[in-house]
Amino acid sequence: xxxxxxxxxxxxxxxxxxxxxxxxxxxxxxxxxxxxxxxxxxxxxxxxxxxxxxxxxxxxxxxxxxxxxxxxxxxxxxxxxxxxxxxxxxxxxxxxxxxxxxxxxxxxxxxxxxxxxxxxxxxxxxxxxxxxxxxxxxxxxxxxxxxxxxxxxxxxxxxxxxxxxxxxxxxxxxxxxxxxxxxxx
Length: 185
Ligand SMILES: Cc1cc2nc3c(=O)[nH]c(=O)nc-3n(C[C@H](O)[C@H](O)[C@H](O)COP(=O)(O)O)c2cc1C
What we know:
- The chain has helices at residues 3-9, 23-33, 54-69, 71-76, 78-83, 106-126, 142-147; strands at residues 16-17, 45-51, 90-97, 130-134, 154-165.
- It is of the alpha+beta class.
- It contains seven helices and five strands.
- The two termini are 32 Å apart.
């Protein structure tokens, strides 16, 4: 798909089913992620690819994390949490793997990981797949990192649910760029 058309037609989809990207397509999707802007070439990213039976493991990890953050919520929302990974055949968890650096602050490294996440959504869309970026309670939290056996400097910044949209999504009408662009011509 033409790059501009891909960018202009991306639309999140909350309900996703098979087919999902093949291993060859995933290679390209991850290569696209790794082309995100990256100050000082720190490569401040990790990606956890979850599919198939891996979703059972993810469900347990999510419940464990919510239990540590808010035990009452974990008990009240147990079924919802355990079923969350089954909303898509593929989930890519994007982690900003940050490090202390004299020039590149943490925020830049997190933004880099965000750009990698967007590259993943765009690459998947260019191949005809849909996705949605979710966060919620189980992101940006050290307890979550620990539940994933990640280090404290590894920050989960999003869960990219990917697959084929269960229903056709309609694009919103275009916004007026003048509402957002300040011209200094
Ligand atoms: C960092 C980030 C976190 C998000 N977290 C959630 C979330 O937890 N749940 C959700 O329904 N949408 C979440 N969204 C919004 C959706 O990914 C999506 O952008 C939104 O539904 C609008 O759809 P669109 O992408 O087609 O414009 C998040 C978006 C971003 C950028």
